[in-house]
Amino acid sequence: MSLQNFINDAISPWLNTEGIDNDIVLSSRVRLARNFEQVPFPTSGANEALVKVLEYMEQEFDDQSYNDLKQFQMIKMNDLKPVEKRVLVEKHLISPSLAEKDHTGAALISKNEQASVMINEEDHLRIQLYFPGFELTKALEQAQELDDWFEDKIQYAFDEQRGYLTSCPTNVGTGLRASVMMHLPALSMTNQINNLIPEINKLGLVVRGIYGEGSEALGQLYQISNQMTLGKSEEDIVEDLKSVVKQVIENERRAREWIMEQLGIQLEDRIFRSYGILANSRIIQSKEAAKCLSDVRLGIDLGLLENISKTILNELMVLTQPAFLQQYAKKTLSPNERDVFRANLIRERLQLEH
């Protein structure tokens, strides 16, 4: 397995399978924050200690496999070009924060990209596991098993009363952040999303954009996750999130039925116009591409568009991002050049479907 596999393929292998409620929930993720006992947290700036953490993880886990997660590979931030780091961010394999690290930062990524362990980001380890569709319980179970595999060789920083100790107080306790990535075009079209987000926030959950905190909801994609980890078990946190997500799914489905009934031909026109833009544009910006891809995906889910796979749309959502475009082009592109290259790429990819 080489670095090129991670940065050349737009879609992670695990996303090629369809999960539960995948018309609305694209993916489920469970992330566990863990730290080495008696080692300064990454936020302390103790670089010598952090380098030792990285070296230990490389020695013990690089090129190792765990169950179906074959062959973890260590990727060091210092070995990557800026555009390569950004590609890994666009694929959700690392965070923007880890991408800014130098010789202390790294990631262990499994061959199928379903699991990645960020090393020396905000905590020594951030273990994340992905599943397609609405599979939070399965993601939690496998993340716990993976966590146990690491804990066999690592003494974690743990307090009997407070739980796992972390750099950020909001992660103390279970260290768990569970999230789902949801496509909510109907709630966005009807403006219900603006009322829904504050209500979700009141329940101790948070709604973010496609790349987490501070990012936009490109293509009507929203990430919903828990905010606090102290005082509840991992299972309770996941069950609370699942309960809210189920309600959001129901609301989105009702909104889709409403727009089909009320908008009818206008909705079809919007979807087919968006497809026309994607299939024929010579210049297209990333925001417009994301909006059109969202419309086309909705058209597929509503049965209005045929002979186009949702997998290709998942691929294009990543492939058309700025860093991936430049990686694909094998050169640095100006903003205008990216817009032209993006349009060409989308046209070519859609033509392969026919």
Automatic annotation (TrEMBL):
Motif RDXXRA motif of the pArg binding pocket involved in allosteric regulation per UniProt: ranges: 338-343
Cited InterPro entries: Arg_Kinase, ATP-guanido_PTrfase, ATP-guanido_PTrfase_AS, ATP-guanido_PTrfase_cat, Gln_synth/guanido_kin_cat_dom
Entry superkingdom: Bacteria
UniProt xrefs under Gene3D superfamilies: Glutamine synthetase/guanido kinase, catalytic domain
GO molecular function: ATP binding; creatine kinase activity; protein arginine kinase activity
Family label: Belongs to the ATP:guanido phosphotransferase family.
Function: Catalyzes the specific phosphorylation of arginine residues in a large number of proteins. Is part of the bacterial stress response system. Protein arginine phosphorylation has a physiologically important role and is involved in the regulation of many critical cellular processes, such as protein homeostasis, motility, competence, and stringent and stress responses, by regulating gene expression and protein activity.
Full protein name: Protein-arginine kinase
Originating species: Filobacillus milosensis
Name of the coding gene: mcsB
